[in-house]
Design brief:
The complex is a heterodimer of chains A (about 500) and B (about 500). With about 500 residues, chain A is of the alpha/beta class. In chain A, about 55% of the residues lie in helices and about 15% in strands. In chain A, the strands form two sheets. In chain A, strands 6-7-8-3-9-10 form a six-stranded mixed sheet, sandwiched between helices. In chain A, helix 8 runs antiparallel to helix 10 (about 380-420) and helix 10 (about 380-420) packs across helix 12 (about 435-460). The termini of chain A are far apart. With about 500 residues, chain B is mainly beta. Chain B folds into three domains: about 35-150, no CATH class; about 165-230 and about 240-290, no CATH class; about 305-485, Thrombin, subunit H. Chain B contains five helices and 29 strands. In chain B, a hairpin with a 2-residue loop joins strand 2 and strand 3 (about 60-70). The longest helix of chain B is centred in the N-terminal third of the chain and has 30 residues, at about 1-30. Chain B is extended and about 110 Å long. The N and C termini of chain B lie far apart (about 105 Å). The chains are: A alpha/beta (about 500), B mainly beta (about 500). The interface of A and B includes residues 294, 320, 323 and 409 of A.
């Protein structure tokens, strides 16, 4: 079996509202193993779609491209359900490289090594091989070329049979582009039987390295293999509208989208439970500590202001001077401890943490970091959702606890300021009706709302992100949905338990 | 920047944990406050809540920890925690009840008014006596209404000598136990009980008049119920009399001075239907004169003291005899400046009076106390008895307070009987009041408590009242029998 890829009467079409955009039709092509192919074609011609199909990175929240005919990778069909055994054989270097920002370059490579079951100690060698014997500590310190090198090193970590590269030389000057091309060729040659497909607009950089050029011909919707000396003619790059109107109805399209959204929510919830046992322990602990320490000052101040003001004004505006003070304190204490402060703490926590978490996940999605995780064989749920859920579920009650305590202290101060009640008297009255049941309910409310906010953040963050605006939108939604969930949980549980 | 933020967050968290520990310890210390916890059962908790007071005589001595329904569901059980100070008053005969506001109509007044703006509370009352304390954890049955004698304005105990009488009124104008009885605007007593006569024709109100005002009630005294009366005319406006009776009706009475005879306990009188038209006489002249008395007939500077003498006569073959005597004596300074009291030997020396068939009586545990009019008490011991057998003895006071007032030496006469001069005998009664006894020429009637009373002739003390030798009849023992060194200088 010497074929890497076999296209048989292959067709590919994007589903759009009101119609389909057909990209490829009736493709019959065979790519041999051990070839280094450069993949060219006009923008929007379907290069990236083919690559994502090969890499298994089809967006599950959107209507999937309609695939017809057959596509075999190492003899395994991709047109039906994607076989899991392919995951270790295919690696991809995506646009923006998808380096995980919060890890060091070396950790990025180590993560890929660990995911493919190899020793982490190979990382320095891989990086050295990619031309980075001493990488800096942070991904943000890498230059464009260095990012590509780290990405190559990471992609090679699983020693894939099929290496896919999306625009690896974009944004580099011709010399750097040539170096990267050379690096890719060296990496290709290093492992016998490896097939490499590089999407590029920069055919010159790969001049000496390509074994063949794959061309998507937009007007004829065909895919063909040319000699390495092939160059796109200028008219090939002219984008033509090829929209057909024989697609599905708009209503069906939107219904499909909506059902996909619902299914995606269901999938996130199922994932959140299925992936609950933490795999990335360090990630989980780090997230938990961050989620506790970052908002705790904020929530404590908020709790103190609320508890103090509520008590102060309850006592100060008492219509019967000196009367009912104990009763007022008792009521205020119960309301503040069991209802008010936990709910507001939930709000503040959501505003502070949910926004950050969904922005982070959204950015990771936008910059292909999540796709990269998937390519490495790391389940994004393990790396992002599980730590988020654990951190929220642990941090929300802890932070709420700090808020309640701050509220109680402020109430004690306010009491001594507004009336002559002693601290012991205050404690007696304030906590008179607060029982262990209330503490459990507060714990339950904050834990449940923490879980739901975590799921909402993850779900909104991992949605399709075509632009930075999408990321911003997801942050907005995370705050609104998170607060709505907190409100719903607190109002619902409080009503259920106390009414 | 991140580090600083995390550091501040960590500090806040640690602060919150410390504060929480503090609050929990504070709350736990509330639970572990020393005191006695009790459970009190009520039919109805009447708005009792956790955190309300437990009061004894109006003072908060504890807190209600919780109010729950008893296991069988027909009682409300209040768990209370009494402070150690209050717990000593909670005894097995204590009554517990819940104080809530109660309206009995305007004229009947409101009780438990303080609960209108504060919570209901538990009150308890312990009758006098020394029953054992309630042990911690006891379950006590609470009362549904306060016991009569434990009302916040509890009725005073009736004292010996108070006048108890019944007043018959046609209608009970909201009179209740504790209502005042007023004479000339001064409270002289109170209503003890109100009940409908069995025949139903009238209401019987039991009154108590304090003993010091007993003489204000005679068979001619008129009683009426003080209650508001409004009279008026369209043009002249309205007049309300007895305005304070709006809230607390009372009983008033009046009798002209010197009219009628004093009444006995159990006296019954019918109340007037309305406030009678009274002619209040002006203050009598004697009353004005009384405060201006110069010198009394009997010289005041003779210092009479009351003496109590207690001793035990030990008998060989029978139970010991307890001896307790009261009498009087005259206090003065002797030649050497000691405070001495001269009195009858038969009062202060049991060996002088007691007889024993087997020889001299054995007297032990002698205690002699001298009481002065101002209430001070001093121990004393005998220093001299008349060797001639006269009933005369001299005591010396121990622990004499400074500035002790004594009889001036010129008030004492150490001479024989004075013929033709009227005698006056003064003694101190067992209640401390000075008695004046008119001696009869033929025979002095001797009451046991008159022993040692001083005999005054022409303003001077010439002797004390004692017994004749070998006789129980009384006689005057002259001071001339005193030896010189026991006389004043």
């Amino acid at each position: 079996m010497s074929e890497a890829l076999v296209f048989r009467n292959f067709g590919l079409a994007h589903r759009r509202a009101g119609g389909e955009e057909v990209l490829l039709e009736g493709v019959n092509l065979t790519l041999p193993k051990n070839g280094f192919f450069v993949f060219v074609g006009t923008s929007g011609g379907g290069k990236s779609s083919v690559l994502r199909l090969l890499a298994g990175l089809i967006e599950s929240r959107e209507p999937a491209p309609r695939v017809s005919g057959e596509l075999l990778v190492f003899g395994k069909s991709l047109t039906g359900d994607r076989p899991d055994s392919l995951n270790n054989e295919v690696a991809a270097i995506l646009q923006d490289e998808g380096l995980i920002d919060e890890l060091s370059p070396r950790q990025n490579v180590e993560m890929a090594l660990a995911a493919s079951g190899r020793s982490r100690k190979l990382a320095p060698a891989l990086l050295a091989q990619a031309g980075l014997p001493k990488p800096p500590d942070r991904v943000s310190q890498l230059s464009g070329g260095m990012r590509k090198r780290v990405a190559v090193a990471r992609a090679l970590a699983s020693s894939p049979q099929l290496l896919l590269c999306d625009e690896p030389t974009a944004g580099l000057d011709p010399d750097a582009a040539h170096t990267i091309a050379k690096l890719l060729r060296e990496a290709h040659d290093q492992d016998e039987g490896r097939t490499t497909i590089v999407i590029t607009h920069d055919l010159d950089a790969f001049d000496d390295f390509a074994d063949g050029v794959l061309v998507i011909d937009r007007p004829t919707r065909s895919l063909r293999l040319e000699e390495p000396e092939f160059r796109l003619r200028s008219q090939d790059s002219v984008t033509q509208s090829t929209s057909d109107s024989d697609g599905e109805l708009a209503a069906v399209h939107w219904t499909r989208r909506m059902l996909l959204q619902l299914a995606a929510i269901g999938e996130t919830v199922v994932e959140s439970v299925r992936r609950l046992p933490p795999v990335e322990m360090r990630q989980m602990l780090r997230t938990t500590v961050r989620f506790i320490l970052e908002p705790v000052v904020f929530v404590a101040v908020a709790g103190a202001v609320i508890g103090g003001l509520a008590t102060f004004f309850a006592l100060r505006n008492n219509p019967i001077d000196g009367g009912f003070e104990t009763a007022l304190l008792t009521g205020t204490g119960k309301v503040a401890t069991a209802v008010l402060v936990p709910m507001l703490s939930g709000f503040f926590f959501t505003a502070r943490i949910a926004a950050g978490a969904s922005a982070r996940i959204g950015t990771m999605k936008r910059t292909n970091q999540i796709a990269a995780l998937r390519m490495m064989g790391v389940n994004p749920a393990d790396y992002l959702l599980t730590p988020l859920v654990w951190a929220m579920v642990i941090a929300m009650p802890v932070v709420t606890f700090a808020g309640v305590v701050a509220a109680a202290l402020a109430a004690a101060l306010a009491t001594s300021a507004a009336s002559g009640i002693t601290v012991v008297g205050w404690a007696t009255a304030y906590f008179m009706t607060v029982s262990a049941q209330d503490v459990l309910i507060v714990l339950g409310k904050s834990t449940l709302s923490g879980y739901l906010v975590a799921v909402a953040c993850y779900h909104l963050g991992t949605g399709p992100k075509r632009s930075g605006a999408d990321v911003g939108e997801s942050v907005n939604s995370a705050i609104v949905v998170g607060m709505a969930l907190v409100l719903l949980i607190h109002a619902g549980l409080t009503f259920l338990v106390y009414a | 920047m991140h580090r600083l933020r995390y550091f501040i967050g960590l500090l806040t968290l640690i602060g919150a944990i410390i504060a929480a520990v503090w609050i929990v310890r504070l709350l736990r210390s509330l639970d572990e406050r020393p005191g006695v916890s009790l459970s009190v059962e009520f039919q109805n908790a009447r708005g009792l809540r956790a955190g309300t007071d437990v009061r004894y005589r109006g003072v908060t001595v504890g807190t209600v920890r919780s109010v729950v329904i008893s296991g069988d569901g027909d009682k409300a059980v209040a768990q209370i925690l009494l402070e150690p100070g209050g717990a000593t008053h909670a005894r097995v005969n204590s009554s517990f009840w819940v104080v809530t506001p109660r309206f009995n109509g305007l004229a009947g007044g409101v009780t438990g008014l303080d609960t209108l703006v504060r919570d209901s509370y538990i009150a308890f009352y312990t009758p006098p006596g020394s029953e054992s304390q309630l042990s911690p954890g006891s379950l006590v049955a609470g009362r549904e209404s306060p016991p009569l004698n434990a009302d916040p304005e509890a009725l005073d105990d009736i004292e010996h000598g108070d006048l108890l009488m019944s007043l018959l009124v046609p209608e009970n104008y909201e009179l209740q136990p504790g209502s005042s009885v007023i004479f000339r605007g001064v409270q002289t007593g109170d209503v003890r009980s109100v009940s409908l006569a069995p025949s139903g024709t009238h209401v019987v109100v039991q009154l108590r008049i304090h003993r010091e005002y007993r003489q204000t009630v005679t068979d001619k005294t008129k009683f009426w119920v003080g209650r508001p009366s409004v009279s008026g005319a369209l043009l002249s406006g309205f007049t309300v009399t007895d305005l304070n009776a709006l809230l607390t009706p009372y009983i008033s009475y009046y009798g002209a001075p010197g009219e009628g005879v004093l009444v006995q306990d159990g006296h019954r009188a019918a109340a007037e239907l309305a406030r009678p038209e009274l002619e209040i006489s002006s203050v009598p002249e004697e009353a004005v004169a009384q405060g201006n008395i110069g010198k009394r007939a009997v010289p005041d500077d003779v210092v009479l003291v009351r003496i109590t003498y207690a001793a035990v006569e030990r008998d060989t073959f029978s139970a010991d005899d307890q001896i307790l005597r009261h009498g009087s004596g005259v206090l003065f300074l002797d030649r050497s400046g000691r405070s001495v009291v001269v009195s009858a030997r038969s009062l202060v020396d049991a060996s002088f009076t007691e007889e024993d068939a087997w020889g001299d009586p054995e007297i032990a545990d002698e205690i002699t106390k001298v009481y002065r009019a101002d209430g001070t008490v001093m121990r004393a011991h005998r220093v001299w008895t008349d060797p001639a057998g006269q009933d005369l003895a001299v005591l010396v006071l121990e622990d004499v307070p400074p500035n002790l007032q004594t009889t001036p030496s010129d008030r004492l006469l150490f001479q024989g009987p004075v013929d033709g001069v009227p005698l006056q005998i003064r003694a101190v009664g067992p209640d401390g009041a000075e008695l004046s006894i008119q001696p009869m020429a033929s025979d002095l009637v001797l009451s046991e408590s008159n022993l040692g009373g001083c005999v005054v002739a022409d303003g001077k003390v010439i002797g004390v009242l004692g017994r004749k030798v070998g006789d129980v009849s009384s006689t005057i023992v002259l001071l001339e029998h005193l030896p010189v060194d026991l006389r004043p200088q």
